[in-house]
Amino acid sequence: MDLDIDFVRAQFPAFAEPSLQGQAFFENAGGSYTCGPVIERLTRFYRSRKVQPYGPYEASRLAGEEMDEARARLAALMGVDSDELSFGPSTTQNTYVLAQAFRQWMQPGEAIVVTNQDHEANTGPWRRLAEAGIEIREWRIDPETGALDPDDLADLLDEKVRLVCFPHCSNVVGQVNPVVEITAMAHAAGAFVCVDGVSYAPHGLPNVGLMGPDIYLFSAYKTYGPHQGIMVIRRALGEQLPNQAHYFNAGTLYKRFTPAGPDHAQVAASAGIADYFDALAGHHGITGDAAARGAGVHDLMRGHEVRLLQPLLDYLKARNSVRLLGPGRAGDRAPTVAVDARRPAAPLAAALADRGIMAGGGDFYAVRALEGMGVDPAQGVLRLSFVHYTHPDEVQKLIGALDEIL
Length: 406
Known about the structure:
Blueprint: H1 5-10, E1 24-25, H2 36-48, H3 58-77, E2 85-88, H4 91-105, E3 111-115, H5 124-127, E4 135-139, H6 150-154, E5 161-167, H7 179-188, E6 192-196, H8 208-211, E7 215-219, E8 229-233, H9 235-238, H10 264-269, H11 271-283, H12 290-317, E9 323-324, E10 336-340, H13 345-353, E11 357-358, E12 360-362, H14 367-372, E13 381-385, H15 392-405
Parallel strand pairs: 1-11, 3-4, 3-5, 5-6, 6-7
Antiparallel strand pairs: 2-8, 7-8, 9-10, 10-13, 12-13
Helix pairs in contact: 2-11, 3-11, 11-12, 12-15
């Protein structure tokens, strides 16, 4: 089934915004456009629900119901219980809170496995636990390909490992890691699993319940929503870890790892992400329960992205003056494409901006990954990232602009 790109773009007000006309957006990995349902829900909340939620009066009752709706519907799309999903101010802060819980729960001498493929959000907070006597073991990428080899992980696993942290896909390498296989390996060794899904979720929400990780983190603002971090913590782990919230919230799973009060309006508006996914499913004839609809939308998005991505990869592979980071086959990666041009990347991004291409140049908080592949983080990479609402004509415009500046 082909994605109806005209229907999709009609759901995003940005494509009708006069100030954005004539520009193609290729820095989606830094934050996607917001879909119409999210904007509508956020506006409505601020207009008529901006009160303390869960009270007995109408506006308060509706505010609380909309917050609960967002959590329940997103959880259903991801195949988990509604109280296993919670919100926080960002994925970085959510990970930091989780790391503090593990600091209290683990014993000195026990170990955590991290990678050097990650965005710093899913490696830095865990590495800091070395200060508490916890051993940090690094699962390193291949310096040529940037890939993580599960066989290398096997050499790091033993009875001391309590947690394995890795990305669903890297925000500069782009390769989609085999989450099910890696999770099974970690569980067989007696370890829990934390997956950073920030760079994957915008390309289709995964069914975390079927995939099996104990923690799955992603950012709503990169998934067509407001600036919130969303985390799934499965019950078997969440009830073991020490409560990080007010003591009287310890009995509520979705509150245990949110020490500050939630942003009521943004949480409620996140239900608009589910509205959008349901609209996509309905328009394309995808039926079934929430998880089935989510899976259908996931495949629809990925199919469109893969078709658009391969010509860009082929173009970059053919240029001897640049190095494409990550796989050259579209089906193996997300459409987050980092290019080492062997010169400072920021001026290249500025040159693309002059040609109506919105892209970025820098290290993108993936300093360890770039260093692991021999790229100077100070020079950075040119990152070209898109999602399912990107039009084929925009990819051709991008390739034409690259031809001029490279």
